[in-house]
Structure formats: structure tokens, C-alpha cells
């Protein structure tokens, strides 16, 4: 099986230490996390982790099952890039005098859909969003003009076929209890088991 980029979406309760426990699942298997984002989700009290890794589908499937074993994890999904809508945000710091002198740089920034978010006498900060390739292309284009600093956010993604996690929660809440009675094999032996 070939490795490819997968985006893992994990819905969780907001608990201290959960991020560390999820990260340990990856580090024990020696899997590098390319991008990690955590934020509130559309459901109040539920957080969403967006994790990007480069692995085989079999490994990713096992990872999701392992992540779901954490008590605070409600559900983990994995998707290829074709199954999600995703973006990354990037900020670029460029010397002000270069922008003022060279019309070419201003045209270049407009071409990439960048907009100014901070203008000072010594530098201007631009921001843009897009796929990693678009962001990297703008870095290469700005380097000859004295790119001072660059930072990129983690990926944010929405699953194309998803109806929202709140629908899954509602489905779970309204599910009728089972009519089947689960038998406990030790119930008749409580004297032996629970006595000292």
C-alpha cells in the first residue's frame, strides 16, 4: 500500500491532557504529525482536532480505532484530500520600502489574493489562505524581495459528505434502548466473587 496524505478529524470532550494522550498514540508508532489544529466544533462543549499525516490507509484506520478508545473521544474519522474542503492561513512579513518601490511586488501579492493586515514604516504583514502549494509558491515569489518572516497555520478542514457531528449525536441520543437482556455469567456466583 502506498502512503498518502490523510486528514484525521477527531470529535472530543474538552479535557486537560487529552492532546498529550492523542500525541502519544502517534509517537509510539513513530508517525510524524504534519499539521495539528484544535478548535471548538459546531456542538457546544465538543472540540474538534484536525490532524494531517502521511501514511497508508491501513495504518490510519488502526490509528482512528486507537484514538476512539480514549474515554473523552466521541468519534474519529479519516479522509483523503479529495473528500474534504481545506485551507491553511499564512502570514508574510515584507520590508515596506520594497513594496513602495516595486510595483511588481504589489501586483504579485494581488495575484495570490494576499491582503495587508499590518502596515508599519519598516515592514508590512500580508495574509493569504489556500492550499499548501499556493502558500509555498508565494514564499518562493517573495524571497527575492527580502521576505523577513513567514508563518503558516495548521490545516482547517470540513468533510464534504458530512451532515455535521450534531446529527450523529442526535441519532445516538434518540436511539431506543435494546430489548435484549445482557446476561452476566458471574451473577449467580456473587457469594464466591464478592466475599473475602
Describe the structure.
The protein is of the alpha+beta class and 196 residues long. Helix content is 33%, strand content 35%. A hairpin with a 3-residue loop joins strand 6 and strand 7. The longest helix has 12 residues, at 57-68. The radius of gyration is 24 Å and the shape is elongated. The model has no long low-confidence stretch (mean pLDDT 85).
Keywords, separated by commas or semicolons:
alpha+beta; Alpha-Beta Plaits; 196 residues; 2 domains; four-stranded antiparallel beta sheet; single chain
Mean pLDDT, rounded to whole units? 85
CATH level 1 name of the largest domain: Alpha Beta
> What is the CATH architecture term of the largest domain?
2-Layer Sandwich
| Radius of gyration from the alpha-carbon trace, in angstroms | 24 Å
Q: What percent of residues are in strands?
A: 35-45%
Shape, principal axes of CA atoms: elongated
Structural class, judged by helices and strands?
Answer: alpha+beta
What is the CATH topology classification name of the largest domain? Alpha-Beta Plaits
**Sheet bearing the most strands, described?**
5 strands, antiparallel
Helix content: 25-40%
Regions with little confidence, pLDDT below 50 for 5+ residues: none
> What's the tally of helices?
7
Amino acid at each position: 500500500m502506498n502512503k498518502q496524505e490523510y486528514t484525521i478529524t477527531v470529535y472530543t470532550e474538552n479535557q486537560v491532557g487529552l492532546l498529550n494522550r492523542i500525541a502519544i498514540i502517534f509517537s509510539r508508532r513513530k508517525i510524524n504529525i504534519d499539521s495539528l489544529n484544535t478548535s471548538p466544533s459546531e456542538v457546544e462543549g465538543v472540540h474538534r482536532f484536525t490532524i494531517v499525516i502521511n501514511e497508508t490507509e491501513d495504518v490510519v484506520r488502526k490509528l482512528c480505532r486507537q484514538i476512539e478508545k480514549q474515554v473523552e473521544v466521541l468519534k474519529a474519522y479519516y479522509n483523503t484530500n479529495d473528500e474534504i474542503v481545506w485551507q491553511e492561513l499564512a502570514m508574510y512579513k515584507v520590508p515596506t520600502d520594497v513594496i513602495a518601490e516595486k510595483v511588481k511586488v504589489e501586483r504579485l501579492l494581488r495575484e495570490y489574493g494576499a491582503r495587508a493586515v499590518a502596515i508599519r514604516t519598516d515592514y508590512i504583514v500580508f495574509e493569504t489562505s489556500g492550499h499548501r502549494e499556493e502558500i509555498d509558491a508565494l514564499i518562493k515569489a517573495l524571497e527575492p524581495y527580502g521576505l523577513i518572516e513567514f508563518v503558516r497555520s495548521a490545516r482547517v478542514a470540513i468533510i464534504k459528505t458530512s451532515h455535521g457531528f450534531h446529527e450523529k449525536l442526535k441519532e445516538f441520543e434518540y436511539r431506543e434502548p435494546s430489548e435484549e437482556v445482557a446476561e452476566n455469567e458471574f451473577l449467580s456466583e456473587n457469594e464466591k466473587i464478592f466475599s473475602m
